[in-house]
Amino acid sequence: MPLDNKKSIDLLCSIIAISNSNLPLADRLNQILDILCGSLIFESVALYTLDAEKERLYLAASRNMDYLAEIKISDSFAEQALIENRHIIFDNIAAGEGLFKDTDSPRPAGKGAVFPVSDGNFSYGLMIANLPAGQSLNDSDLHIIKTISSEVAGTIRNVQLYSNAKKVVEELHLINEVSESANSSNNIDELLQLTLNKLIEWFGVRCGIINITGDNGSSERTIFLSHQSELAQDNVIQHCKECGLDIHTIEEAVLLSLTGLSESAGTCPSEAVIAAPILNGDKRIGAIILFGKRGETPFTKEDLQLLRNLTAQVAPAIENTVLLEKTKVIGREREVMVQELSMLFDLNKAIMTTIDLDRLLHIILTAVTMGDGFGFNRAILFLYNKSTGYIQGMMGVGPDSSEAAGNIWHDIHEKGKTLNDIIEDEELKQPQSQLNELAKGMRVSESEKSILQLTVKEKKAFNISDAWSDPRVNRDLLTKLNCKAFATVPLMASGRVAGIILVDNIYNNRPIDDDDIRLLTIFANQAGTAIENSILYRDIQKAHKEVKAVQNKLIHSEKLAALGEMAAGIAHEIRNPLVSIGGFARRLARHTGENDRESGYVDIICKEVERLENILNDILVFSKEASVESGQQDINSLIEETLQFFWNDFEKCGIEVEQALSPDIGYVKTNRQQLKQVFINLFANAKHAMENGGKLNVKSYPSESEDKIYVHVDITDSGEGIPLDIINNIFNPFFTTKDSGIGLGLAITHKIISSYGGEIKVMNIKDGGATFSIRMPAVNQDDLL
Amino acid sequence: MKKILVVDDEENIRFLYKEELGDEGYEVVLASSGKEALELLEANKPDLITLDIKMPEMDGIETLKKIKEIDKGMPVILCTAYGQYKQDFSSWASDAYVVKSADLKELKETISKILEKTAM
Questions:
Q1: Which CATH class is domain B3-119?
Q2: Residue A650 neighbours by CB under 8 Å, 6+ apart
Q3: ipTM of the complex model
Q4: In the list A3, A27, A696, B91, which could disulfide-bond A7, CB 3.0-4.6 Å?
Q5: In this model, does residue A736 exceed pLDDT 80?
Q6: In Å, how far is A605's CA from the nearest CA of chain B?
Q7: For residue A215, what is the DSSP state?
Q8: What digits encode the pLDDT tens for the residues B76-89?
């Protein structure tokens, strides 16, 4: 039914009014469709809007007929209408294939039509209609419909622009909020919770998970937030993983539809899931999963992009916070280290204050037991004797009972006593306690199986937490200690074990941890060195005392010797006058008659002189050098010993020595020094005879004559021999000439050999050189027995 | 009559020896130093010499050496207050060694023993 001008204008006016109203879009569209049907232009009509991908049309509003909810654009008239931006009229709606619902009920008569909803630039959708039966559309009608379409397009565009703008503002607002919250907290857990909460709200999901990858220095952490109590973190993570979405490996932002998860088994609608990695630049620091959106409106691609943007916003904050936490942890560790080091420094300083072993041990044990030291309840120090293998308890420090412990700790606390106060205590020596007595009574031999020997052997600390069931701990030790847990640490000095410190917490039962052992080990290394130094010092002191004693003895004997010398000197001076006095007195005695009174007087003089002479003899004997003692001498060893003196000289002169010493010769009875002098003289003589080189032959052999056994030594040089004019006087002490080079030595040699009943002869050899032959009586077998 | 040369720097000792050895029937010649002894040796031709060791200038050991150079066979008895000379090997070149004493018995016995030996 064609519209007249007035009706057309009215129609357009009403539609413009509706378009510009404040009503929601759907209401406005519905009202416009009402007007179009009411003006009898269309029997029925539907408005479709185009999706963002321009692939599908969705039904926005319809009137008077059941229209398709969704139309695929491709392969239909819709495509033609949209692309060519023109209307298409069908003779009946069946001809508009793909645009109308197939239905079994009788289709309405009348033509079908499709109009693009376009403002000339963009198409926003389609208007599909069914004309009243028998009617068609003239140009005027078509013009009006086209005008209305563009009005509708305008309306849709405005609304879309508005909602897009609004959404952008909201997203910006969200990003801002998330950024703010991300930067508002220095606590990583708080930051993650705030962020996750915002995202859950925004995306309207049931729960969310953020996982931050741990790397060196920080641990992995996972935050889970849910508004529904039946969803548990592990279940959700596991469920996602089973559906192919592992939170630990997400690399790309994804939209997924997973099987629904519900605590109550059974049918459960599928749920939309959106997930994204958290990337700081190119570095993946974690991932987020927003899980469980049910219903008609799943996530859009824009949501995915938004999530990407959000994670990119939050990532630096997370990274910074993780770094900050890491820094804090490191800072705390450093602080602890500084505390430990300063304590160790103090302790080290303290143990350097003394060289006295008892005091040192007490300082070490005090350091181990004091609250501001290591704070162990009891400590016992053992020293290890390497040469005997024994481990000996030296000292124990600690209360004897828990009551005493309480009192002592209270006392220390009250008086504010520090380690330094105690260390500065001058009286610090052996402590008076049962524990100390117990400690000093402990002694473990090398063969005993003991945790103490094990500590020495393996050179490492042992932390025994359950002593009574530990096979390494011997019962004997445990019975004495009576504690459940203890630790042993070797005291090291220059790589060797000097001793052991044993500690326990028998009264407060505080467990001994690895940090305790680590610190105690460091301290034990320093303490070990200090102990070794102290022991060395003690040994040196002892040695020094001994040297002093010997020196005193020496001084004493030197004094005696000096005294003796002086006495001897005086005695000599006195002897001559005494000889005169006594000698003449004796003469007088002989010339006085026996009955004269003078005879008695002279006798007294004689006796008194005799007495004085005896005293002088005693003094002289006392001051005389050690008398010449004789003993059995092995003449071969004596020769070899003496030859050694001459090696250098012989070598210098180019003298070759040949020895032929018979092992079967017996002993001779002489003074060793004198006999040695004999050989010294003879070798010196030989050297003198061969100053331009030669050969020295030394030979020893036994002989027997008239039932007596003799020892012979022949010493032959290859010099020029002894001049005939002196050979007979060579042993005469005063016949020596300097020219001959024969000194007093040979005379002395002769005297010595003769004094022991021996003989010495000399003879020249035909080819030059001389042989000195010694013959001495060997010691009788009877004498040997 | 055997002639004995007594060499000693102490006048009283010389006097004592002269009296005592004279009583024993010896002719006694006295010298107060080593030098004088060597001078007297040629002229007097003694049968035996007693020689003190500790004397100023030339001591007894040196004198002994000189005497032996002149007359190797001359019997010499070293008389001294110093027992330690027994350790000095060069004194062994003398025929005897007597420690001085107020009792001259040892000296007299040694003299007669040596003179007996040389007479043989």
A1: alpha beta
A2: A656, A657, A687, A696
A3: 0.86
A4: A3
A5: no
A6: 11
A7: B
A8: 998 877 665 555 55
